[in-house]
Amino acid sequence: MAKELSALENLVKHLAALPGFGRRSARRAALHLLLHKDTALTALINTLEAARESIVECPVCGNLDEQSPCSICANTKRPQDILCVVEGVSDIWAVERTQSYNGQYHVLGGVLSPLDGVSPADLRMDSLLMRINEGQFNEVILAMGATVNGQTTAHYLADEILALGRGVKISRLAHGVPVGGELDYLDEGTISTALKSRAAI
Ligand SMILES: [Zn+2]
């Protein structure tokens, strides 16, 4: 029988399982919490419980919010005719931070990945196609990451959306030289994509 973990080992194990946490940072965080039981640890426990109780997944777009539908879907001032499809909720936050897009969103919950066994049924694709088929969108932006799986997913979705026959404009994010980026520091894939999607001056 495996030896039972001590409370401390268990805490480190659960912290280390969080994205962005390694064993080392998990140990440091655990120590910090235990040294500040009445302040940091108690506040964290209360915050986690409040989040568990109040934050829900939006049934329309997949965003996380305290209201359902989420505040973006419920905001009637936002244009209703443009939809931005993203991989995850954090991508909504990233696009919102730019303040350069004001339309609707749809979270896929990942990308197609045959190696990891992620198929269309594992993603929120049916609800996406259903939303598009309802006919309110003139344009769908496929804002997947510039990874092989991201681009495969975008191509797959573009085919599925075309097959709906609704005449919706399908676009994707331009990939290219990052603002402030020097060519010398970029990988060949980025430069080659930037060349292909070059724009007239
Ligand atoms: Zn929503």
Q: Could you explain the architecture of this structure?
A:
By secondary structure, this protein is α/β, with parallel strands linked by helices. The protein has 2 domains: 48 residues, RecR Domain 1 (Helicase, Ruva Protein, domain 3); 96 residues, 3-Layer(aba) Sandwich (Dna Topoisomerase Vi A Subunit, Chain: A, domain 2), CATH 3.40.1360. It is 44% helix and 10% strand. The protein has 8 helices and 6 strands, in the order αααββαβαβαβαβα. It has a 4-stranded parallel beta sheet. The chain has a two-stranded antiparallel ribbon with strand order 1-2. β1 and β2 form a beta hairpin. The longest helix is centred in the N-terminal third of the chain and has 18 residues. It is globular, with a radius of gyration of 21 Å. The termini are far apart. The mean pLDDT is 93. The structure holds zinc ion. Zinc ion binds next to α4.
